[in-house]
Amino acid sequence: MHIHNLSDNKSILNTFISELRDVKIQKDSMRFRRNIERVGEILSYEISKSFNYKPTKITTPLAETVIDTIDNTVVLCSILRAGVPLHQGLLNYFDAAENAFISAYRHHLKDPESFEIIVEYLACPSLDSKTLILADPMVATGQSLLATYEALKPFGTPKQIHLAAVIGAKEGVNFIARHFPENTHLWIAAIDDNLNEKSYIIPGLGDAGDLAFGVKLEQ
To answer: Which of 14, 34, 92, 192 is deepest in the core (most CB within 10 A)?
Structure first.
């Protein structure tokens, strides 16, 4: 796997990540969602540098000119619900992309510290020979991304696979590196060192879904 950790270089991205982590600022759910979206936009710009391009002739009010434009057919797939703001950030840049959505959540077993990933909903176009961008804000164990990838396989074989994430733990990054195709690209804003006993990223930022959309109803 090719890992692109954007925090290796200082940029305005640092500001957005600091606000996402800050317990005072992240209480503003609208600002939290917008910061996730802005990270998605920055990830999109970086991902676009790896795409194929073709010369395209256009006509301005004064003359004809040729500009290189993207030659990839993109499918954006996000994991509900935390992935929605990140999806929007990607879609702001790849506005001609097809879209897929999948639900993948932790189902806790008798031991509250153990869980399995349950996939219950999936809507996806054909992926054959397309560029798949799979978006999940938090890569903790990496199991949600793998479960999603496995669920997408019946929809075809992508030509390229890109993973877009905001924050990951080293353990989760190493896990997906072992299980995804070798030529997969991971684009991530920051990588943290540890997971706690409940498999949350440390220092992380908390539960991205709850911070973006409110606390889940416990069942």
So the answer is: 192
- Global confidence as pTM: 0.91
Average pLDDT over residues 212-216: 88
- C-alpha distances in Å from residue 205, one per residue of 14, 177, 212, 216: 14, 23, 12, 17
46 half-sphere exposure, CB direction, 13 A CA radius = 24
Taking the C-alpha atoms of residue 172 and residue 2, their distance in angstroms, rounded to an integer, is 14
Amino acid (one-letter) located at 21: R
- Using CB atoms within 10 A of its CB, is residue 206 exposed (0-12), middle (13-18) or buried (19+)? middle
> pLDDT by residue (tens digit) across 165-186?
999 999 999 999 999 999 999 9
Spatial separation of the C-alpha atoms in residues 215 and 169, rounded to whole Å: 23
The string of DSSP codes covering 116-170 is: EEEEEEEE----TTSEEEEE-SEESSSHHHHHHHHHHGGG---SEEEEEEEEEEH
**Cross-strand pairs, 202:** 194
pLDDT class of 104 with cuts at 50, 70, 90:
confident
Question: Do the bridges between strand 138-139 and strand 160-169 make them parallel or antiparallel, or are there none, so unpaired?
Answer: parallel
Task: Find out whether 159 and 131 touch, Cβ atoms under 8 Å.
Answer: yes
Token pair belonging to 53: 């391009």
Residue 10 has which token pair? 């200082």
